[in-house]
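Board notes (copied after class):
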Amino acid sequence: MFSFLILLFWLFVAFLIVMSTLYVVKQQTVAIIERFGKYQKTATSGIHIRMPFGIDKIAARVQLRLLQSEIVVETKTKDNVFVTLNIATQYRVNEQNVIDAYYKLIKPEAQIKSYIEDALRSSVPKLTLDELFEKKDEIALEVQHQVAEEMSTYGYVIVKTLITKVEPDAEVKQSMNEINAAQRKRVAAQELANADKIKIVTAAEAEAEKDRLHGVGIAQQRKAIVDGLAESIKELKESNVGMSEEQIMSILLTNQYLDTLNNFASKDSNNTLFLPNTPNAVDDIRTQILSALKAK
């Protein structure tokens, strides 16, 4: 019985030795091993052996994965507008410089924030508010380069810096919206005015074309009438009816006059017809027409 208890004791001691000797490091993580408070080595992922009973101690486990820090910075632009900038910074520990990342810097996120604030407060006051909105990607890249250079001495790599939001003062933002709305209204008014102008010009051009075509039609109609009269006179002369040219012209003009009256009276839109009230009215009209022709 006594020997059994001794065996259990030694088994327990062996278990403690094994448990204090073996340790596991997870993937994308490294372990800082110290011996009596002094740096001994950096253990990568996997199972490892160390000196037992606290001789070798795991001082820290450092993450190698990509980390992100959200930072809010308030600053002022060149045109004296206060703005709030939301910055997203992605960073990680340099695998080749884990010792500096652990021993040189206690709070890396706070240090990164300080560098970013300093860089932004140096860059943003050189730009107006409009320029800040236009060049925010360029500013983010410039800040990234400045911060990356500073943090590299501490074993950190700045992967990406983004300005995710630019928020001006509330009153300035409202004024910008009002200015934008006024500009859009002015453009809309100009477009409406141009549309009305196009309508008026198009209508005038259509009316002018209508008048021109109407004049062409009347001219062609008169030409056709004159050509018809000339043809009729020629035919009557050639038929040897024993009439003079003046008599032939008188008959044709009288006939044309009567046809015109007939056409005028046959239209529904014509409600009133004015005629000479003397018995010799047709004769007078014929005489007047002939006199006008002779005068020409």
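Comment from the instructor: The two ends are 161 Å apart (CA to CA). The helical segments are 2-21, 98-103, 108-123, 129-134, 136-151, 170-238, 245-266, 281-295.
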